Amino acid sequence: MDMSQYLGVFIDEAREHLQNLNDKMLELENSSDDPELINSIFRSAHTLKGSSGQMGFNNMMELTHSMENVFDAMRHGKVNVSSEIVDILFETLDHLEVMIDQIEKGESDAQDVTATLKKLQFITAGPGTNGKDSGQETGDGRTVKKADQPVPSGNGSLVMNDYEKAAVDQALARQMKVFETAVTLRSDCLLKAARAVMVSNALESIGNIVKSVPEAAEIEKGKFDRTFRFVIVTNKSEEEIRSAVLSVSEIEHAEIQPIMSSDNGNNRQEEKPSGKENKQQKQKGRRGTEGSKRTVAKTIRVNLDRLDHLLNLFEEMIINRSRLEKVSQSLENPELKETVDTLKKVSDQLQETILNLRMEPVEQVFNRFPRMVRSLSKELDKKVRLEISGADTELDRTVIDEIGDPLMHMIRNSMDHGIEHPDVREKIGKSSEGTLALRAYHSGNHVFIEIEDDGAGINREKVLSKAVEKGIVTKEAANSMSDKDVYHLLFESGFSTADRISDISGRGVGLDVVESKIHSLSGTIELNSVPGQGTKFTIKLPLTLSIINAMLIQSGEEVYAVPITSIAETVLRRQVKIQSIHQHQVITFRDKVVPLIGLRDYLNIPGSESSDPPAGGNESEAGSIVLVRQGDRMIGILTDRLLGYQDIVIKPLSRFLKNVKGFSGATILGDGKVALILDCQAMIEKQKKTVPNEKQKEEL
Amino acid sequence: MASVEGESLKVILFKLNNEMYGVPVDQILSIERIQAITRVPNAPDYVVGIMNLRGLIIPVIDMRRRFRMSTTEPTKDTRIIIVDVGDIKVGLMVDEANEVLDVDPGSVEKTPDIVSGPGSEYINGVAKINDDRLLILLNLQRILYEQEITEIKKIEV
Questions:
Q1: Among A31, A55, A78, B101, which is most buried by a count of CB atoms within 10 Å?
Q2: Would you call B47 and A651 a contact, using CB atoms and an 8 Å cutoff?
Q3: Is the pTM of this model over 0.80?
Q4: Which of A605, A648, A660 to mutate to test the interface with B (most CBs of B within 10 A)?
Q5: A523-561 confidence digits (pLDDT tens)
Q6: Do B147 and A656 touch (CB under 8 A)?
Q7: Contact A185, A196 (CB under 8 A)
Q8: Per the CB < 8 Å rule, is A676 touching B52?
Q9: So what's the pLDDT on residue A39?
Q10: Do A366 and A354 share a structural domain?
Q11: Domain limits at A495?
């Protein structure tokens, strides 16, 4: 069956179900007697089994089937939830996740899961019962399941799962026809399976089979009575389908009904009174409430590529809008000006809408942490409670994809280094269970993510002695460092204060990698700590990455863009006094010594007039200084002129230029020319290396 | 990329320091006139800068500098050949480019020893065309990607 066009839907849905299973199983461990919880888990597992079978991923189906049996046994109280069983189930979920990853990459779902399968089967078999009994029990479990669940059988009616509904809706939206085809074989038919497969092949040649009842695998084994049903998507007529079906011999009759909407299958079936129906309705009702809890709004799935394309087109528009604005300014035509203003307003709204399309709740990143914390606490023999808040905070998709690993690093770090062992905690009067809070929230144009633990906090002396030992700072410098600077040492590469090297963190890669990742997302990270009370990491991220507001600055003939998020302030050069310390220029700004970088020198900008003023001399008063900051470090960039703020679209520098440092990208200006975007973080880092701030302060 | 076998080879001819060079047509996106190019500080010297090609940011290479020839100011004949090799798109700034030519693969000789010298490793072969002119076929793959390796060693900003 060629289901490739539904593969995307299948993968998305499978991931959702896996996530649901993950979440619910964590809950289950704490409240194992909640029947609704088990039912919800069971349903997810069941749907997963169904759709994986449908797509022909038999390994996945087999694994989910075994897992489903375990849940089924739980539902009927045959198996009690225990930490060990939950472990095995999580192991199963891990396998499933790998399978889905493989499928997404276009590979098969092959995985060696025999060990896990055995464990799952062992649970359902039950250690206390002998082989014979267990066989009956499993058999029994499955019978119960069949009666209780809307499992479609050959004689039953069609119940489509969400995925199949989506497929039907999609087809209908594309003006294709959808038919339900019920085929009954003659009672004396000898080769049931073969005939059914022939019918299926005949239908495949004129359309796509979206659903088959019973499932394709069952049909192939001949596991049906005499009737089997297909839902087929095609652009052929009812008659053509009939003749295709009847071209196969030994068929008694074929019943073909058009399906007008994805609900059709269910509606029709509700008209038929049967004992089974009540239960199905109940099931549907439950599913309904579950759905409404999550989302009320109607949604469609859109390929990310399409969104990217939309954004690209919009970027083109922004560039042309800037160009138009420039033209309108020079022409001074009131009508033109008004139109351009309106265009600006509309496109601003459009920008917001488009960027919103790319936003996704940070939930999907946070989701994986409860499990991680669970297994880590076991491993570390610590008690940790994870509190998540603001999981619905939205972030650009690109950021979502990248932020997971850094967060994971930090959580590991907090659990390993921050939170103490239960006995230590009790001794110092803390509750034995440590708390790790993971929060996300919006503020202005930024999203903040905080990771806070109530552990031991950062030991200043320990950090310093380590830093001195590793040669990161000198002993003299160490004593005069502020707490903030000391904490920042943790982000230096190769720094680890763990007393022992554990498997969790302290592998040499850590916070420095985290910091550079956050920087690459144009974000910043701060660290606060109160000894004895805990540590808090605060990550600040921009809402979006592709369109930013920037200050355009000019030196000589060249124009550069400085992201507004980096700018602390701008001052005119004549407002401040430029001094020189050790051949390095500095200005004093609000009682702070700020190193100054002349853009002309920094970038070797050609031009007759050098912006490099002799210290203390009566240098030219022209020019402006842009003060950029990263964390609590600030530098001034000396430039000839400020050209004003503008929305710019960030375009990556070509891979051909990837070794060129100092720029975070390029942008196209209103006049069609290209301007480079200054990487202020890199400038500050570079400056930091040449002259340490503290030294300057002392010498002034 | 010595596509020596097969039918005739379609190449675009361009001039560099009075020598004829050729690049296979299928590697070429377009040929542009000289236009505003933004200098990229800290880039290798043969990178003229980056230009805006209908919304794409394209680095431009001065082929004279790339081959360590004497450099000249751009003239009205100067062209930028936009090539697409692998996933890198760049513009090659050349003295002149206007002809498309069918080259008989049989007339392509592997680089003769005489032309070995600076830049010879970027040459796929030499072809003789109609009036006994010599045409140098460039190996763009080499020119664009080898640079990635050497650049890492060279640039430390």
A1: A55
A2: no
A3: no
A4: A660
A5: 888 888 888 888 899 998 877 667 778 899 999 889 999
A6: yes
A7: yes
A8: no
A9: 81
A10: no
A11: 361-542
Dist CA A3 CA A209 (whole Å): 8
What CATH number does residue B132 fall under?
A: 2.40.50.180
Sort A505 into a burial class: Cβ within 10 Å, 0-12 / 13-18 / 19+.
buried
- Is there a single domain that holds both residue A536 and residue A608? no
Give B130→chain A minimum CA distance, Å.
Answer: 36
Put simply, whether B144 touches A (Cβ < 8 Å) is yes
| Tens digit of each residue's pLDDT (9 = 90 or more) over A655-699 | 788 778 888 889 988 777 899 999 887 788 777 766 554 444 444
Q: Which residues fall within 8 angstroms of residue A26, CB to CB, at 6 or more apart?
A: A370, A371, A374
- Residues in chain A with CB shorter than 8 Å from the CB of B38 are 558, 666, 673-676
**Domain identity same for A556 and A656:** yes
Answer whether A656 sits within 8 Å of B36, measured CB to CB. no
> Could you report the per-residue pLDDT of A21-64, keeping only the tens digit for each?
888 888 887 776 777 788 888 888 888 888 888 778 888 888 88
* Domains contained in chain A, number: 5
Q: Which of A148, A180, A212 is the last residue of a domain?
A: A148
Residue A639 domain-assigned (yes or no): yes
d(CA A699, CA A544): 41
A559 vs A622, higher pLDDT: A559
Confidence of residue A621 (pLDDT cuts 50, 70, 90): low
Across B81-90, average pLDDT: 86
- What is the Cα A513 distance to its own chain's centre? 19
The ipTM estimated for the assembled molecules is 0.83
**With b meaning 16 or more CB within 10 Å and e meaning fewer, what string describes A317-327?**
ebbbbbebbee
Does residue B13 sit in helix, strand or coil?
strand
Residues of A in contact with B147 (CB under 8 A): 656
Q: Which of B41, B88, B155 lies nearest to residue A654, judging by beta carbons?
A: B88
Q: Which residue of B has its CA nearest to A603?
A: B41
Yes or no, beta carbons of B155 and A666 under 8 Å apart = no
The pLDDT, as a whole number, for residue A689 is 66
CA angle A345–A349–A350, rounded 5-degree value = 115
The CATH number for A48's domain is 1.20.120.160
